Amino acid sequence: MNNVFKILVIDDEQNIVDVVKAYLEKEGFEVITAMDGNTALKIFNKETIHLIVLDLMLPKVAGEEVCRKIRAVSSVPIIMLTAKVDEDNKIEGISIGADDYLTKPFSVRELVVRVRALLRRSYRDVTPMADILTFNNGDLEIDINKMIVKKQGTPVSLTTNEFKVLTILLTNPRQVFSREQLVDKAFGIDYEGFDRTVDTYIKNIRQKIEDNPKEPKYIITVYGMGYKFMSGLFEV
Asked: Which positions bear 4-aspartylphosphate (predicted)?
């Protein structure tokens, strides 16, 4: 894996920052650190960041708000660190834009493995069908290589995982995918999430690309089976 990836580590515990930074640099990554949310956002606005490791419990600006602000403008992969272990809190973290999560205390070696896996999923070459797909006379436009989605000409921000789920669906129009199939195709067998997260991704995507998320025209639920993408004719 290319060692030019730049990772932003955000945590208010100095020992965690130091250990994570040391391990990631040993693996060949460039690491920038921040110990509060405000500093983290300033760094993100100035630097080209390829992945973020984000603690939720931060001073000045909470981790959840940092995640929301970054997600409003970028699809950069985010691994969330949290002391909350129940499934609902993990679902909430994914809902606001996290691509993966680890609960504290965590193994730094596991974090490194997850960083590598998420970078591999996020930046591997994707070249299905055509670079730019447009649907319904320009209502929806997706640039596959640049990971840009536009709704009626206005850019919308999808997380890396949301974009991958959308890509699988739209490049296989009318094909029904179960949750398990979407996980396997979008993220690979090394993905350690759970099937219910797919529903969260679909809900978030619909909020961003549908005119009426409660009556979707693009991503259709096939009850008891999964999801499919219905586009009508598309233009390249």
From this structure: 55
The answer to whether residues 11 and 115 belong to one domain is yes
- Domain assignment present for 10: yes
- Asked whether the beta carbons of 63 and 57 are under 8 A apart, the reply is yes
Range of the domain at 196: 132-235
d(CA 90, CA 202) in angstroms, rounded, equals: 16
pLDDT one-digit tens code per residue, 38-62: 999 999 888 878 899 999 889 999 9
**Rounded CA separation 73/85 (Å):** 28
Residues β-bridged to residue 234: 135
CA pair distance 152, 138, nearest whole angstrom: 7
| Same domain flag for 25 and 116 | yes
- CA distance readout (Å), 133 to 42, 121, 176: 34, 21, 20
Cα separations (Å) of 39 from 44, 62, 76, 99, 121?
A: 9, 12, 17, 22, 28
Scanning the structure block, which residue is given the tokens 């759970």? Answer: 194
Question: What would the two tokens of residue 12 be?
Answer: 């208010």
For the chain, how many structural domains are there in total?
Answer: 2
pTM of full prediction above 0.85: no
Looking up tokens 């991704």 gives: 201
User: Which of helix, strand or coil describes residue 207?
Assistant: helix
